[in-house]
Write a structure and sequence with these properties.
The chain is α/β, with parallel strands linked by helices and about 325 residues long. The chain has 2 domains: about 10-205 and about 295-315, TIM Barrel (Alpha-Beta Barrel); about 220-285, no CATH class. The protein is built from 14 helices and 11 strands. Strands 1-2-3-4-5-6-8-9 form an 8-stranded parallel β-barrel, surrounded by 7 helices. It has a 3-stranded antiparallel beta sheet with strand order 7-11-10, with helices on one face. Strand 4, helix 5 and strand 5 (about 115-120) form a beta-alpha-beta unit. The structure holds flavin mononucleotide. Keywords: Flavoprotein, FMN, Oxidoreductase. GO terms for molecular function: nitronate monooxygenase activity.
């Protein structure tokens, strides 16, 4: 018997499982997001710095596989942001997730169109600020996550955010199965978001080299780039990421670090991993939980197994009444 969580947002969206596939620039395609929503979770298209036409194309690709609601994760710093929001509204998208940046200038307009807004937050202060501005939920993301990260771990961050705000809190970072999901619920989360787990799904369209690297990764196979020069990101250890960290050490010892050179090195590198599978130039963004993932599975199986395992564990600890 599956446990039901009290999350009005998920109820409104008609989700079967309280599980979100986190937006992932390049990797979170319309096909993947649509497949997750079709299977009963919430898929989110990751659009990074794409222009509005590319966003529309991916939204339509998601619609080819589902009639259910799905979300779009926007990059607020993108120079296409206005046109991107126009497309999101025109296409009738129901959920907008945001990474770095403040979504509040767009909040009223998005709410007028019935769009749920869910920023990702790495700290209590940001969660409180977002609640005050009127967002509908927050995703508390720990530094175990793949991609750009804050500094707190999920285990410490989630309960503190839960205590600090009165809106639903979704836990993200280091969750890969029903055990992690049940643990997040125990910490007070009313849903989870996974990214790395969905990279290794049949419906994920990332290059085979990237998928294989996630499946083969051990617990110690991720590193954080940007520790010294900023813009921290968790990626798999590759020739590229090791070189990046070496260059960072060299740059930081200079009187004035050449941030431009580092930006150049990072720019476009996620695309090189996702599309070309190139380990010399690609940033294979993935989280610490990659070590737990041993197989590429259909998203329907990932969702079903994760939630039935979590439900079993939660029922054992809560009792059946
Ligand atoms: C390849 C990759 C790309 C990502 N890109 C984004 C992004 O563009 N915007 C964002 O808010 N989060 C991004 N994330 C974070 C995910 O949405 C999600 O919160 C995270 O992966 C959860 O942690 P996990 O990897 O341990 O499951 C990315 C993660 C990965 C693995």
């Amino acid at each position: 018997m599956n446990v039901q969580l009290n999350n009005p947002i998920f109820e409104k969206l008609g989700m079967t499982y309280p599980i979100i596939q986190g937006g992932m620039a390049w990797a979170g395609t319309g096909h993947l997001a649509g497949s997750v929503s079709e299977a009963g979770g919430l898929g989110i298209i990751g659009i990074g710095y794409w222009h509005a036409d590319q966003v529309r194309t991916e939204i339509r690709r998601a619609r080819e596989v589902t009639d259910r609601p799905f979300g779009v994760n926007v990059m607020l710093m993108s120079r296409h942001i206005r046109e991107v929001f126009d497309v999101i509204i025109e296409e009738g998208i129901k959920v907008v997730a945001t990474g770095a940046g403040d979504p509040s200038p767009f909040l009223e307009e998005l709410h007028e169109h019935g769009i749920i807004v869910m920023p990702v937050v790495p700290s209590v202060a940001l969660a409180k600020m977002m609640e005050k501005k009127g967002v509908d939920a927050v995703v508390a993301e720990g530094a175990e996550s793949g991609g750009h990260i804050g500094s707190l771990s999920t285990m410490a961050l989630v309960p503190q955010v839960v205590d600090a705000v009165n809106i639903p809190v979704i836990a993200a970072g280091g969750i890969g199965d029903g055990r992690g999901t049940a643990a997040a619920v125990m910490l007070g989360a009313s849903g989870v978001q996974m990214g790395t787990r969905f990279l290794a799904s049949e419906e994920s369209e990332i290059h085979e080299n990237f998928k294989n690297a996630v499946v083969k990764a051990r617990d110690i196979d991720t590193v954080v780039t940007g520790e010294l020069l900023g813009n921290r990101a968790r990626v798999l250890k590759t020739k590229m990421s090791k070189q990046y960290i070496k260059n960072e050490r060299l740059e930081v010892t200079k009187p004035k670090p050449d941030a431009d050179a580092m930006e150049k090195l990072e720019n476009g590198t996620l695309k090189n991993a996702v599309i070309d599978g190139d380990k010399n130039t690609g940033a294979f963004m993935a989280g610490e939980i990659a070590g737990l993932i041993k197989e590429v599975e259909p998203v329907s199986q990932i969702l079903e197994q994760t939630w039935s395992q979590a439900s079993e564990l939660l029922t054992q600890s809560w009792g059946t009444h």
